[in-house]
Protein 1
Amino acid sequence: MLIKKPKASDVASSEITPQSVYMRRREFLQSAAMAGAAVALGPYTIGNAHAGAKLPNVAKTKWTQESLGEGDKLTPYEDVTSYNNFYEFGTSKSDPKKKAGTLKTKPWTVVVDGHVEKPGRYDLDDLISPHQLQDRVYRFRCVEAWSMVIPWVGIPLADIIKRLGPTGDAKYVAFETLVDPEQMPGQGFATLKWPYREGLRMDEAMNPLALMSVGLYGEQLPNQNGAPIRLVVPWKYRFKSIKSIVRISFTDKMPPTSWNMSAAREYGFYSNVNPQVSHPRWSQAKERRLGGARNVFGFIAKQPTLMFNGYSDEVASMYQGMDLARNF
Ligand code: MTE
C-alpha cells in the first residue's frame, strides 16, 4: 500500500498535528531537557548543518576498529560514499552519489505513530537531542556478498525508542523512507513499491547494536548514504538498514518490508547474516570486502562470512529456539 504523505517542508508541525499530540510532544521535549544530557549536541544541530559537516562531541565506544579482527580494515571513504544501493536514485551502484544531490534534508521531520505514548511529528533535532552521538565501527555485509567496514556516527535506536515510550502492544518497529519523486527520481519507476519499508522485532530494535545513524567518518551523512537519518543493523544484511527515514511506527503485527514484498522467496523479514543459509541464487558462505586485499590476479580475495556477521555474542540469544533456515 502506498501512503501519500505531505512533504515535510509543507507545513509546520503545530498545523498538522492534533493539539493533544502536539502537547505530548512538548512534554517529550521537556522530559528530554530534564534528562540532563541536553548539551550533547551543543549549539550545532544535525537539522541545520550540511551533509559532510564535521560532527561535534562524538563519544568513543567499545565498537572501535581495534575491537574487530585483523582483516577488518576500514573501507576507504571513497568506496563507502560512491558504491551505494539507494533505489530511490536508480539501480546502479554509482547512481546515488551522482543523483542524490536533489534530496532536501532540511528541514526534516519524522512522524512517530502506532502503539506509543508520545506520537507526533518530530523535527529531526527534537528526535535525536539530547542524546550523545557515538562512534561505532561496524562490519556491514550486503546480501550481494560484498561487505565494508564503516565508522558510523549515531545514537542507539534503543535510546530513541525508550524516550518515545512504546506501549505493551508494540511488538515491532516499522520504518519508512521519504516518498517524493521530484527529490527522488528513481521513485518514478516501479523498481520497488514506494515508500521503502523496513522493520525490526522490538527486542531487535532495543538491542544495543542497533544504531540510528546521522554520520560516517566523523561527518554528517552524505545524501547517498541515507541523510539525514538512517538505520544501521550490523548483524543483518544491509538492506535492513533503511535510509532517509520519515516515519517510525510501533505495531503489534510484523510489518511488511520492501524486499520481502518484492521477492518473498529470496528475502525474509529477519535477514540475519547467515553463511549456512544460501540465497536461492547464490551462496552466502563468503564475501568480498571492498577495498580489501587482492589476490595475484588483481581480484579482491573472498573471505568467510561470519554467523550474524560476527556479532553472535551480542545477538544470538534473541533467536534461540528459532529455525533460522525457515526464519531467514
Ligand atoms: N534504503 C532505502 N530507502 N532505499 C534503498 O534502496 N538500499 C538498501 C539499504 N537501505 C536502500 C536502503 C541496501 S540494498 C543496501 S546494500 C544499503 O542501504 C546500502 O547502504 P549504503 O549505500 O550506505 O552502503
Protein 2
Amino acid sequence: MTAPHPQINHTQPPLKADHGHIPGTAILKVTNLTVRYESGTALEQISFELNTGERMAVVGPNGAGKSTLFKIIAGVMKSEGSSVKVFGAEPRGHICIAYLPQRSQVDWNFPASVSDVVMMGRTRRVGYLRWPSNADREIVKNALETVGMQDLAARQINQLSGGQQQRMFIARALAQEAELMLMDEPFTGLDTPSQDELFSVLDTLRSRKVTVMVALHDLKLAAERFDRVMLLNHRLVGLGTPADVFREETLNQAYGDHIQVLVHEQQVSVIDDTCCGEDGHSHA
Ligand code: ADP
Ligand code: MG
C-alpha cells in the first residue's frame, strides 16, 4: 500500500495561499458566460455548476466551444465580466485548477524527462525561485506512482505513447495538488487498453474527490463512463445524466444533420454521414 497521497491532504500548511477560496461555495460556478472571438461567438450564455468530486463529460461537434470553455475556466483566457467563479472567486491564478491541453497542441520534442514535467506542477505551486526539496521529489514520485509511471520517470517525453503522455499530465496536475482538472480530449487517438488505463486513473481521482471535466468526441464513452454530460454547441444544449441528455432530438439539436444519432435502450450509436452516402448529403 502506498501512503495517502498529499494531493488533498490539507492538514499540511499550504505552500502558497489558495486564491480567495470562499467557504461553502461550489468548486465551479459559471453564470451566463459568453465568449466572442473576432470570428464569431464561441460560447453563449452558458450557466452550470460542478459538484466536488464529480466527473463530467463535455461533448459537442468540432468548434462547439469546448476548448474555449476549459481555457476560460482555467484562467488561461479571460472572459467578459466575472461569470466564472472557482470556490467563489475569479479563476485567474487559482493553483487548484489544472488545464491539461490536447496532446496535439504540445511540442513533444522539447527536451524534458517525465519527472521534469511532473516537477513543473510543484514549481507552479511553490514558485520558480526555489530548488525542489525532498518533499517536492516525494510528491512527484507519488504522483507518478498514482498514474502507474514510476518506472518512466527518467524517460524523455518524446519517447512516450499517447496514453503515457496523458497520464504524465495527470501526474503533473496531482503534483500541483489540483482539485479541479480540465482535460481536453484526453481519449482522442488512444487505443482501448490505453483508454482503460486512463479510466482507472480517473477512478483513483474520483476516490480522492478530485473534480474532473473531460472534453471528448466519443458519445459512447461519455454515456457509459461519466456521472453527468454536458452537450455543447456554442450554447448549452443539454446537461444531466447521460440518459437525460443523450436523446435523439437533443443530440440532433447539437449535431444538426452532420451525424445521424440512434438511441436505443440508453445505447448511443452515432453514424457519421458527412463523408458518404449515395444521395450525397450536402453541408455547404
Ligand atoms: P472545440 O474545442 O469544441 O472544437 P473551440 O473552443 O476550439 O471548440 O472553438 C470554438 C469556436 O471558436 C470555433 O468556431 C473556433 O473556430 C473559434 N476559435 C477558437 N479559438 C479561436 C481563436 N484563438 N481565435 C479565433 N477564433 C477561435
Ligand atoms: Mg477543442
